[in-house]
Specification:
With 179 residues, this protein is of the alpha/beta class. Helices cover 21% and strands 34% of the residues. The protein is built from three helices and nine strands, in the order E-H-E-H-E-E-E-H-E-E-E-E. The strands form two sheets. The protein has a six-stranded mixed β-sheet with strand order 4-3-2-5-6-7, with helices on both faces.
Length: 179
């Protein structure tokens, strides 16, 4: 493995993750029919894994694109600058758009992205996330499709990184805190 397993404990197994994605996909499939044009917008880098596994579970006419944002000057008040490093490359009009995240915590970047996409007039705009740290939210934004609400803890694997490493782990691990 690419990390010291003595410092981490398994948080979600591959089966747990698969079950959560099945639940998210079932909810999306209930909301959108086979003739609906759905655009998944994965937020890079972490959501690439979730997006890839989610898209295969959907029954609609699905397209995929990615966006990459970065936040500078983060603070609890929500001030700071958010920059787009890679923008969406398709027109969102006449499409149902679902922003896909691997995890939502403060919500600052997601709220910026949500408002930006909403201003482009999609048919609908929703948010899907595998994990939701709703207790860490500093701005008002809620996901429409949530795999699991989690406590405030440091997680790696399945798209979640440790200094740009460990995204490729097939399971999610949590940092063990000293007793």
């Amino acid at each position: 493995m690419q990390f010291d397993e003595r410092q981490f404990r398994k948080f979600l197994s591959e089966q747990d993750i698969s079950d959560l994605l099945d639940d998210i996909a079932a909810a999306i499939n209930k909301d959108f029919g086979m003739n609906d044009k759905v655009l998944l917008v994965g937020v890079l880098k972490g959501a690439i894994v979730v997006t890839a596994d989610l898209v295969r579970r959907l029954h609609s006419d699905v397209d995929v694109d990615f966006v990459r944002c970065t936040a500078h000057g983060k603070s609890l008040s929500g001030s700071g600058t958010i920059s787009i490093l890679r923008d969406i490359s398709v027109d969102v009009r006449n499409r149902h758009v679902i922003i896909v995240e691997e995890i939502i915590d403060s919500g600052r970047t997601l709220k910026f992205l949500y408002d930006r996409i909403k201003s482009a007039n999609p048919l609908s705009l929703k948010i899907a996330t595998l994990l939701d740290k709703s207790s860490k939210r500093v701005v008002k934004i809620d996901a429409d499709y949530v795999g699991k609400v989690v406590d405030d803890q440091f997680l790696i694997g399945y798209g979640l990184d440790l200094e740009e490493r460990c995204r490729n782990l097939p399971e999610v691990y949590a940092l063990k805190y000293p007793n």
